Amino acid sequence: MPHTAPNPLVLFSFPSSAELTDALANFIVKAQKEAVEKKGRFTVALSGGSLPKQLAALINHPGVKWDKWHVFYADERAVPLDHEDSNHGLAVRELFSKIPASQPQPTIHTLNPEYLDDLEELADQYEKELIQEFAMKDSARFPIFDLILLGIGPDGHTCSLFPGHELLSEEDRWVAYIEDSPKPPPKRITFTFPVLNHAARIAFVAADAAKADTLHTVLDEPEKGLPASRVRPAHPGQLYWFVADAAAEKVQFARTPFKL
Known about the structure:
Hydrolysis of 6-phosphogluconolactone to 6-phosphogluconate. Its EC number is 3.1.1.31. Residues 16-241 form the Glucosamine/galactosamine-6-phosphate isomerase domain. Keywords: Hydrolase. The chain has five helices and ten strands; from the N terminus they run βαβββαβαβββαβαβ. A seven-stranded parallel beta sheet has the order 1-10-9-6-2-3-5, covered by helices on one side. It has one domain (10-244): Rossmann fold, CATH 3.40.50. Strand 9 (202-206), helix 5 (212-220) and strand 10 (239-244) form a beta-alpha-beta unit. By secondary structure, it is of the alpha/beta class. The radius of gyration is 17 Å and the shape is globular.
């Protein structure tokens, strides 16, 4: 019997990757429109993995206003920006490099490669980027992103927040570093749960059928405490999952028909 979790979330499931990516693009553009109308800019954070590929439908979407975008990375690897392991490098290859040069370009906030050998300073510098964008404009204890787009690992991790790691308990820092990631590369920086859970909207994207067991645990058994289950924005109803039917095969959580 389908059920809902104590803290509400919305689950959209799609029979094909094309339907998923089109719906996701329309969802993002709606979030962008509302943010720009309200405050003149759209703040969004991306994770890596397969997520940038799922954003391809944005390239030719007529509603995208790239010049209003302020893009951050929800986590990043401590490697040069053009390295094959860099989330920024991946986003450039899969998304940003495909924006026609004739169009206005987004503002992209990357880590500072000068501090790759000093993880604490690397995290501090990226936190300062967030402070510059948010604290000086919004006067908030934590940044309130218009949208954070996340993926999920086979172990239930999201960003660089891994099961059983001490960073799951971080309550003060906006950006933390990890030097013992169980998934290579080991050195990374990541948003913390307070930042994730202050977002106006969060959308997880999962299209891989191999993650069916993980999605079942995250969505149907949140009491097991996998990192992705701990993402619960303070704004009720503003947590969304965009998944392929194959990835949601074992999920009992009730689906919602997608509409804007």
